Amino acid sequence: MDMKEFKLNYYEKLYLARHFEDELMKLFADNKVVGWIHSNKGHEVIGVSLALAMKSHDYIVPHHRDRPAYLAKGLSAKSLLAEIMGKTTGCCGGIGGELHIMDVETRIYGPTGVLGSNLPIALGIAYANKLAGNDHVVVCNFGEGGSNRGSFHEVLNMAALWSLPIVFVCENNKFVEFTPMQKHMNIEDVARRASGYDIEGIIADAFNPMETYETFKYAIEKARRGDGPTLVEAKTYRLDGHYEGDPMKYRDEEEKKYWLERDPIIGFKASLLNESIANESELESLEASVHQVLKEAVEFALKSEPLKVSDTFKNVYA
Amino acid sequence: MDMKEFKLNYYEKLYLARHFEDELMKLFADNKVVGWIHSNKGHEVIGVSLALAMKSHDYIVPHHRDRPAYLAKGLSAKSLLAEIMGKTTGCCGGIGGELHIMDVETRIYGPTGVLGSNLPIALGIAYANKLAGNDHVVVCNFGEGGSNRGSFHEVLNMAALWSLPIVFVCENNKFVEFTPMQKHMNIEDVARRASGYDIEGIIADAFNPMETYETFKYAIEKARRGDGPTLVEAKTYRLDGHYEGDPMKYRDEEEKKYWLERDPIIGFKASLLNESIANESELESLEASVHQVLKEAVEFALKSEPLKVSDTFKNVYA
Amino acid sequence: MTKINFRWAITHALDEELARDDKVFLVGQDVGESGGVFGLTRGLYEKYGGWRVKDTPISEEGITGLAVGAGMIGHRPVVEIMYMDFISLAIEQLANQAAKTFYVSGGKIKVPMVVRTLAGGGFKAGIHHSQSLESWFTHIPGLKVVYPSTPYDVKGLLKSSIRDDNPVVFIEHKGLFSLKGEVPDEEYTIPLGKADIKREGSDVTIISYGKSVHQSLEAAEALAEEGICAEVIDLRTLVPLDKETILKSVEKTNRAMVVYEATKESGFGAEVSSIISEELIYDLDAPVRRIAGAFTPIPLGDAEDAHFPTVEEIIKVAKEMCY
Amino acid sequence: MTKINFRWAITHALDEELARDDKVFLVGQDVGESGGVFGLTRGLYEKYGGWRVKDTPISEEGITGLAVGAGMIGHRPVVEIMYMDFISLAIEQLANQAAKTFYVSGGKIKVPMVVRTLAGGGFKAGIHHSQSLESWFTHIPGLKVVYPSTPYDVKGLLKSSIRDDNPVVFIEHKGLFSLKGEVPDEEYTIPLGKADIKREGSDVTIISYGKSVHQSLEAAEALAEEGICAEVIDLRTLVPLDKETILKSVEKTNRAMVVYEATKESGFGAEVSSIISEELIYDLDAPVRRIAGAFTPIPLGDAEDAHFPTVEEIIKVAKEMCY
Ligand SMILES: Cc1ncc(C[n+]2csc(CCOP(=O)(O)OP(=O)(O)O)c2C)c(N)n1
Ligand SMILES: Cc1ncc(C[n+]2csc(CCOP(=O)(O)OP(=O)(O)O)c2C)c(N)n1
Ligand SMILES: [Mg+2]
Ligand SMILES: [Mg+2]
């Protein structure tokens, strides 16, 4: 893929992630969504960069703000949206909803309702891959808040000890529900904790698409080579509330403004134009195609069958 | 207390710890002990240094090799031995045994059968002291093996965040049951993990009595001043097996020899003589008095009433 | 008497106990400045300060153990575990440390502490935000377990739990938060270990707790119209269990059912059912029935209702028992 | 047939499954080079190497989750949790992750895995090394729970558990390790979910599992001399439960008791007792009795015996029921 193609692809995925979120919020406001939704605005660069840096056989064990990664890794907007809306056409048949997206095809694993509990699962997938002797890499995401669960420590220790093919991604968005991260830890950088396991800790600016991409690419290829785990801290900012409906009384509006002005989706588009990688009309048609995808996804999800109550008594045992 | 007094006191406590262990092993071999015993030979300097660096109102939340600290902190050999032998005269009435020594008087808290579970308890005692606004310090001990439990991470994070009056003591004795510590983590120094919480991590040579004492003194007084927690890693070597009866097939005899030659109890005695702090006869009489204490403790424990079965149905609720 | 909702009854109980005893303090995620994810601690941070109403990191094991330690030296911590589903992370500290310390110290070290946790359906949020796991704790000697159903009860029982010298698992059903009820203006407590007969009756005893009490009462209304007079017992405290009230009632009615939202199998209703059958089998005109949660995880959305007991089911079973 | 002890039957089962399927691997503290704290994995490290027989750090939550993840992508991990008392640290991964993944993935992602753990008394090591906590797991839909009592059963059931596509909590009673019994020389498995009638009888059904089976059998011997013919059912698998075998037996004997070592209250025996009373109340000549662990933590030393069911108690209760 040449640079132009790559960057356009990147932009398309960013754009899709952001606008998927907009559609989702509209559906939520319309009462078409089952359960909560946790907006990922501000996290898009992380998911898109990861997905593009991964191979299709690589695994992701996400946390609750990783829809951009799902979409970029190839889970269809239809399947994702239908799942969140509790429809049988969703990737899990509509039984899990927003928090429990899993998909064998695109290798998304691990239900994520209990923070920090995905890390041991990711460790296990990496262990099994190492045992199998293949070159598949596992990416495991979590927030800075969730990283204070004990599981973080147990898992980083074992991953380092056994030099497993895994990349830990801390999506540091400065908030943990309704409190700032400073109420959760007295360090600025979660990446700093890597040293306690003698692994590399790297910080990436998640409002900078290419830097973030290169960082993940480096960590993933390192893992693939057999050189063990990396802890990447992607610095971002939660542009929306913790979940839809959060009045955000705790938020500093100046701070939000600062981040909004740096919005990477706008900035990346501008850079494509400024650097003459694409022209307005190319981008417009790309955007139009994303909207078309989303329109189809919304229609698809809306008209899909909701999960049948009788089906919720199935699949207790394999 | 002048230096001579201090050092003699220190030596007496070291000597008591070591010989308590010998008595205990004899009783164990004689089938007089209920349950297991985990020898603490090699750990004495840690316990004695801690106890001497603490004030009587300071708390210790120990792990399973901390008899030297109990004794040095003032728990009587009688009470301790009786407890381990399941006698009603033991500090817990004989119901807990070796693993669950607690004593309100000498401020020993936290039953320790599940590794790592004492750390959150120590955190809570420190939190309560901070809330009460007193200057009591909590010391919390654990092995390098137990430090890989998630609780370590959660507790160090909170202790650091709230700058609690607590000292974490990792008694690194190189073994975790029957495996060397290298099978448990890929770092040499647990102290290195302190930096991830932005607290001080210090290594002390636990075969060097005064260095260890000074290190603990520093960390404890720092905590008392309100300057927050420290992680002290006391480097030692488990001279005996994991528990009595362990055939120790995994042990490198050369390594053991190396450590035995540095035995701090012998070395400290030699230094007292060499530096003319005490003469032979002073030390002999001190040793004799320890043996007298132990003799009385053994007699006391042997003739004490065993825990009555009917009493084991009491105290389920306060 | 004032009518307040369940949610506020919790806040008032916490407020009064914080004011009464400076050994009481709260810890939990977002319990401080933000007033709690469910607003249950609103205003307390401002009133008692950040050390007595403490926002914590996401460290459920750590904060539960924090309470154990603080309790050991005479404080009265109250921990919030946001969803009972996450109590799996705290169960080590509850079951192995808090529950056993008084015993293993030979009766010398008490562990007063309360773990408040939000259980049950109602938020329709699926597998990790809907469970009711009381039977994990009723199985552990040394723990008390409280599961109130009304604003009056939740307030009086929470205050007693905080004053109790033992570790208490205090379960608040999310589906009850908006329920309104009378609460005295003056201070009161309700002793742990006393069930409450929420409705008297003579034909069948419906034993329940938490949200299911209201379904039981609704069913009892409907049954009354069909000539079946059901007695509804609200256990309120599962441990210690008020066997006396249960057995006295069943001796009178000769029929009993237990209604609870948790998974039926190995749920607390099994204990209640076993006790009744053990003690009163010769009095029973019908087998003790359990109406409880399905043997499945809890699905997302409205489908959850089909996994929990329903009023219709209670009515149907009561009729089967009585005819 | 060869007579081997319970301990070796476990080792052989692990060995055979490791040999049969390279997706099988073991993780746990000291399971590797040292051959296990109880010698249960002796020789396997040498035979299968350090990656398939993996010594782990003290990280119970982490290694249980490791198994969940590996299971999800088609491996068959077997975790050892050294003492069941420590399973509190693993219950999050078992109850919230392993148990619910197949369900919440819409039936697309299986989690084959086994958690082997050592339960019960016998080592006389007190509160944190003696518990039997099966009922925490029998309450969680999605988990299977196995609790064998003989060398023959433990081998056949462990092999089936490893081959099962669901998460299995496999409980080994420490008091059985030296028990000897016949085991076929050729390969065999025992299906999960099938109880075994260990002794036939007509007067009373004693339902049990784990070590208590042997006490039940001993009591049955003694009862026979007094003219009471007891049928002893070994459940072997608690989930799925073989209700059919239980109910058929009780239909015949009209009397049932459940014997188990765990704390009686909210223990698995409550579930069994409830089912029998629900289904067969009109057949019962006496209430279903539970003979089980005392409602206390487990004390150090010989005193523990008084906290567990005894042969005498079983005999006494059986006589009360039959006369
Ligand atoms: C173990 C656990 N504790 C608490 C929660 C409730 N909870 C859900 S999201 C959240 C905040 C998570 O913060 P962070 O990890 O920083 O991720 P973010 O939401 O900021 O992306 C909390 C506390 C949970 N789901 N799991
Ligand atoms: C949570 C837990 N896992 C396992 C054990 C079993 N166990 C008892 S002592 C021990 C080794 C502890 O090693 P370390 O922490 O280094 O302390 P040491 O014995 O070397 O002093 C183990 C694994 C336990 N008691 N608790
Ligand atoms: Mg965050
Ligand atoms: Mg060690």
UniProtKB/TrEMBL annotation, chains A, B:
Residues covered by the Dehydrogenase E1 component domain: 13-306
Keywords tagged on the record: Oxidoreductase, Thiamine pyrophosphate
Highest taxon of source: Bacteria
Cofactor: thiamine diphosphate
Transmembrane segments: none
Annotated protein name in UniProt: Thiamine pyrophosphate-dependent dehydrogenase E1 component subunit alpha
From TrEMBL, chains C, D:
Keywords of this entry: Oxidoreductase, Thiamine pyrophosphate
Classification via Pfam families: Transket_pyr (PF02779), Transketolase_C (PF02780)
Domain Transketolase-like pyrimidine-binding intervals: 4-179
Superkingdom of the source species: Bacteria
Needed cofactors: thiamine diphosphate
Keyword Oxidoreductase part of the UniProt annotation: yes
Keyword Transferase found: no
UniProt cross-references to SUPFAM superfamilies, sorted A to Z: Thiamin diphosphate-binding fold (THDP-binding), TK C-terminal domain-like
Protein name: Alpha-ketoacid dehydrogenase subunit beta
